[in-house]
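To fix ideas, we quote verbatim a fold written out as tokens:
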Amino acid sequence: MNPLKESIRFYTRNIESLLLLSAVILLPFLLVHNFTMNYVNFLAALTGAPVVSSFYNLFLLLLFLTVVQVVFAQYVISDLEGEERPLRHAFRTFFERGFSVFLFGIVYVLAVCVGLMLFAVPGVIVLILFYLTPFLVVLKKKSPWKCMRSAYELGKRHFVPLFGLLLLSSVIQWLISVIGLASVISITTSFGAVFFTQLLLTVLIFPFLAVMFTMYTYKWSEEGMHTTSAQAATAVEG
């Protein structure tokens, strides 16, 4: 199984359902983020505290994206395991697990942001080591606090590939955002048009990235279970 190729196939085959999830779950979070940041940026301009604004922007964005990953992860896993009505499972899991992932996300994202603001490297390390927690919440059907150890082990074992995937995701989002922004500005400088275009691009791109990370988490978890089983069998034979 090649997770990247499978992600592309899955996205193109299920694009209608993924965009529905994105419109119903992701879009409201993005709107709340943008409206909140407009208010925070206004206060930052009045008080002369742009650092606070940048910190809050990063914190809120990472927190919301951490929570939203749950619904896409469940849709992918339901489809991989042949469950009926994967959309229904996705919505139900989001409403059942979303709040606990939100609480975990506050602690996780706060640690990431503090690490990034102070020394950068510790923040990146924390981001990578626990990034797969929301996906494991869905896969293992456990609370995020019980999945942290598994996420840490997967993150440590696949640190370089995971770092590469996060870097690739950032580059893809940045390139598409720049191209979209340049295209809109060449037609109009309307703030509404630019704002709508950025939202639309995120709604289109994020589901694919969530599918990709779910595919890799699923593959690495399966490999980990097979390795554990093989080691146990070897120990019994020995």
Remarks:
- The mean pLDDT is 86.
